[in-house]
Design goal:
The complex is a heterodimer of chains A (230) and B (586). By secondary structure, chain A is α+β, with helices and mostly antiparallel strands. Chain A folds into 2 domains: 97 residues, Ubiquitin-like (UB roll) (Roll), CATH 3.10.20; 129 residues, Alpha-helical ferredoxin (Fumarate Reductase Iron-sulfur Protein, Chain B, domain 2, Orthogonal Bundle). Chain A contains 8 helices and 7 strands; from the N terminus they run ββαβββββααααααα. In chain A, α2 runs parallel beside α5 and α5 packs across α8. The longest helix of chain A is centred in the last third of the chain and has 16 residues. Chain A is elongated, with a radius of gyration of 20 Å. Chain B is of the alpha/beta class. In chain B, β1, α1 and β2 form a beta-alpha-beta unit. Classes of the chains: A alpha+beta (230), B alpha/beta (586). At the A-B interface, α3 of A face α3, α4, α10 and α15 of B. Bound molecules: flavin-adenine dinucleotide, iron/sulfur cluster (2 copies) and FE2/S2 (inorganic) cluster. The site of flavin-adenine dinucleotide (FAD) has 47 residues of chain B, from α1, β2, α4, β7 and α5.
Chain lengths: 230, 586
């Protein structure tokens, strides 16, 4: 199977270029396995990866124009030649490795931790199964960045717009009945950019490898804001 | 060019559950703390833990920490230290509540309390009916815990060095640890981090085997660093093969599947665990189930075109349970085995999963080494998590006890560092020769010219480990293995890096990891060859019995001369009566 991968070594190259590799495909092969085969052919080829099972969020790449996690993408589903590029819109460090600093900063900016003002009980804070269910589809985010780096609003305003991943995280805490910082969280999201740059283009939903729905989360935040405003 | 240097009060190497739970303790003090991780913290392999974390909360069935302690001692095949086990089982309860307070989205019971499931090796009332002790966030517990701990560290403004690779510890002539030499992966620049206390929390080493549930990054770096600093590794022969890896690939199917009612069948559709463990059946301890599967396959009752695996039946549980309690498993089954667990059984075979052994520590995370007739603390060095050995797992770890171990002892190490810093207000003088030695380990890979590529030796090494230090171990297989491994080790100096670029050179990282795989892997094979009995995960057909008279002792492997020493098991708990060794039946 033919793969075209984006190469860039800042020590040697002025700009990224595509390089072709032929990989012997086996049954059940994932794209990460193919990238590892390419690394066997050329050890200088760089990409991030670790768990191999879609939980660590390291190996997001752009495949034939769509962001995917390499380790859970069967090569059999891909159109040949398979074109693999780094995430769009992020500064390239080397080959498929991009600089995700702004993505992480936006995450940190939504204060993604549980805030509790009441004194803690001796045991667990109680939560009904129904209330806990509200966190399903939110807490599973693996911070792979497939969504935010597919979001046009994030491409243009990565320093001002939080992006789908961070907003999903913001809603994860707003939705948690144990959290006691709803007002602060909502206040912090006010303004034309942080939240409201989302134009519901839905790229984020399409690419999320965990089947999460940041657009819906963003909608929930907007509704809650409206509700709290009246 | 001069070497860049930074000074901190404490240096934590590793940002998995152990490292982050140590860091969060320190974050609430004045101490300046650096956390170094070769991957962004939430990419650490704690994220992959599925089933849950044990604590006797008694939310579902009656329970108490003393029963948990009994199960852990028995599960360890009486090789675990009972003082450390008592400490862990007591601490489990506040530890899980603290996690919940930190935001972990545990699954819930109708009462609003944390959901708990049954796992293998758990009993009520010292060996009675099955207990339900494993606190779970669906089958994504590790993910839920790791992210919550990272989030709390972000809140506390912990100083992270993300994507920095620790090369080696720095020590002075008295053996005190002064910090570590690390490499910034993005720039390829080395950095010397000086610290009054250094915590190794580098996780497991499953990558020494070819088929494993462990991530690419689990290369035993911390254990190898300790070995090179002259510290022995304890009980490394005890390596757990998890019974249910996806056949041929190694990804894990959590024991929680069997806890929820799934069971194993062979070619004839027989529920074979009934023969091997009449009471506990599919929830017998992991070593027991793994050996049963290997035996079934060896005796020709395997499934598939090559009759090389067995099946895990889940479909009878119904779609509801599977999607609610085991959604991640359903997903993995679909992706990696092409099977929807709701309708079809999953193909499984044991996979290299967890190292019970590691860097010897006391219950405060302090690294301890033999000295004269007793033991002494290595000044300035701590270890916690899978790379450490307290020892609570002894010869076999129970499911759900590892997340517990990393959290309890990560926390304990963090707290002890705080005490330690009160007494040690100054940095010790730097030891240039140790820095040079660590630098040499890095610059060695600048050598140019033809030579074997890293991957070639790595592949051969991992295959040899799998063939010669796997589930069943005879003298013949293992001594041949050790010879082969030593021969491979002799070829390490011939290996050459062909890419010498600086920026994000992952080939250089893999070369450094290769040496760590060797040091850690050989400690496993060597310790295994020397232990002439069967105990827990260490199963020798040529010495089928446990031999308490000669072998109820911890092994210590030293890298220098591949030397072994032994030390007694600590059978005296902190407050309760000791559990005397008994035959281990399930
Ligand atoms: C698939 C799977 C499922 C599991 N399920 C369960 C379960 O349900 N219950 C349970 O109790 N246990 C489970 N375990 C075991 C448990 O998850 C691990 O033992 C535990 O998470 C290890 O945590 P840790 O903090 O020690 O290491 P890790 O989480 O592996 O973290 C290691 C850290 O060290 C860093 N590091 C390593 N080397 C270097 C270096 N050279 N330089 C810089 N940084 C370095 C890494 O970047 C990482 O941050 C499971 C394990 C696996 C593999
Ligand atoms: S829906 Fe909003 S967040 Fe998602 S891609 Fe579109 S603009 Fe970005
Ligand atoms: S929401 Fe989905 S795509 Fe976005 S970071 Fe999380 S897991 Fe990745
Ligand atoms: S390697 Fe971990 S998500 Fe792909």
């Amino acid at each position: 199977m033919k793969f075209l991968v984006s190469r860039f070594n800042p020590d040697a190259d002025a700009r990224p270029y595509m390089q072709a590799f032929e990989v012997q495909v086996q049954r059940g092969m994932m794209l990460r396995d193919a990238l590892l085969e390419i690394k066997r052919l050329d050890e200088s080829f760089a990409f991030r990866h670790s768990c191999g099972e879609g939980v660590c969020g390291s190996d997001g790449v752009n495949v034939n124009g769509t962001n995917k996690l390499a380790c859970i993408t069967p090569v059999s589903e891909l159109k040949e030649p398979v074109e693999i590029r780094p995430f769009p819109g992020r500064p390239i460090i080397r080959d498929l490795v991009v600089d995700m600093t702004q993505f992480y900063q936006q995450y940190k900016a939504v204060k993604p931790w549980l805030v509790r003002n009441d004194p803690m009980p001796e045991q667990e804070i109680l939560q009904s199964p129904k209330d806990r269910d509200r966190l399903d589809g939110l807490y599973e985010c693996i911070m792979c960045g497939c969504c935010s780096t597919a979001c046009p609003s994030f491409w243009w305003n990565p320093e001002k717009f939080h992006g789908p991943q961070a907003l999903l995280a913001a809603w994860r805490f707003l939705a948690d009945t144990r959290d006691q910082a709803t007002d602060e969280r909502l206040d912090a999201l006010e303004g034309p950019y942080k939240l409201f740059r989302c134009h519901t283009i839905m790229n984020c939903v399409e690419v999320c490898p965990k089947g999460l729905n940041p657009t819906q989360a963003i909608g929930h935040i907007k509704n809650l804001m409206l509700k709290n405003a009246v | 060019m001069a070497l860049n240097k930074r000074r901190f009060d404490a240096l934590i190497i590793g940002a998995g559950g152990a490292g982050l739970n140590a860091a969060i303790q320190l974050a609430n003090t004045e101490a300046r703390v650096a956390v170094v991780s070769k991957v962004f913290p939430t990419r650490s392999h704690t994220v992959a833990a599925q089933g849950g974390v044990n604590a006797a909360l008694a939310n579902v069935l009656p329970d108490n920490w003393h029963w948990h302690m009994f199960d852990t001692v028995k599960g360890s095949d009486y090789l675990g230290d009972q003082d450390a086990i008592e400490f862990m089982c007591r601490e489990a309860i506040p530890t899980v509540y603290e996690l919940e307070h930190n935001g972990v989205p545990f699954s819930r019971l109708d009462s609003g309390k944390i959901y708990q499931r049954a796992f293998g090796g758990q009993s009520q009332n010292f060996g009675g009916a099955q207990a339900a002790r494993t606190c779970a966030a669906a089958d994504r517990t590790g993910h839920a815990i790791l992210h919550a701990l990272y989030q709390q560290n972000v809140r506390a403004r912990t100083h992270f060095f993300d994507e920095y690779f620790a090369i080696d510890l720095i020590r002075d002539d008295e053996g005190a640890i002064l910090g570590a030499l690390v490499l910034e992966i993005e720039t390829g620049e080395p950095l010397l981090i000086e610290a009054k206390a250094t915590v190794l929390a580098t996780g497991g080493c499953g990558q020494v085997y070819r088929t494993t549930s462990n991530a690419h990054i689990n290369t035993g770096d911390g254990t190898a660093m300790a070995l090179r600093a002259g510290i022995p590794l304890m009980d490394m022969e005890f390596f757990q093969f998890h019974p249910t890896g996806i056949a041929g690939r190694g990804m894990l199917i959590t024991e929680g599947v069997r806890g929820e009612g799934g069971y194993l069948i062979n070619r004839d559709g027989e529920r074979f665990m009934e023969r091997y463990a009449p009471n506990a059946k599919d929830l017998a301890s992991r070593d027991v189930v793994s050996r049963a599967i290997v035996t079934e396959v060896k005796e020709g009752r395997g499934v598939g075109p090559n009759a090389d695996h067995v099946l895990l039946k889940v479909d009878h549980l119904g779609e509801d349970i599977v999607s609610k309690r085991l959604p991640g498993i359903r997903e993995s089954g679909r992706i990696f085995a092409g099977v929807d667990a709701v309708h079809e059984p999953l193909p499984v075979f044991p996979t290299a999963h967890y190292v019970m052994g590691g860097i010897p520590t006391d219950p405060y995370g302090r690294v301890i080494v033999p000295q004269g007739t007793g033991e002494e603390i290595v000044p300035g060095l701590y270890a916690a998590g899978e790379c450490a050995c307290v020892s609570v797992h002894g010869a076999n770890r129970l499911g759900g006890n590892s997340l517990l171990d990393i959290l309890v002892f990560g926390r304990a190490a963090g707290l002890d560092v705080i005490e330690n810093l009160k007494e040690n207000r100054n940095h010790r003088p730097m030891n240039e020769s140790s820095v040079e030695a660590a630098m040499a380990r890095l610059t060695r890979w600048d050598q140019k010219g033809d030579g074997m590529p890293v991957r070639e030796l790595r592949d051969e090494f991992r295959k040899t480990m799998e063939d010669h230090a796997g589930v069943f171990r005879t003298e013949e297989i293992m001594s041949e293995g050790v010879e082969k491994l030593k021969a491979l080790r002799d070829r390490l100096p011939e290996v050459r890096l062909h890419d010498h670029s600086k920026v994000f050179n992952t080939a250089r990282i893999e070369a450094l990891e290769l040496e760590n795989l060797f040091d850690t892997g050989i400690s496993i094979a060597y310790s295994a060859l020397m232990r002439k009995e069967s105990r827990g995960a260490h199963s020798r057909p040529d010495h089928p019995q446990r031999d308490d008279a000669n072998w109820m002792k911890h092994s210590l492997y030293y890298r220098d001369g591949d030397r072994m020493e032994y030390k007694p098991v600590r059978t005296k708990p902190l407050t309760v009566e000791s559990f005397p060794p008994k035959e281990r039946v399930y």
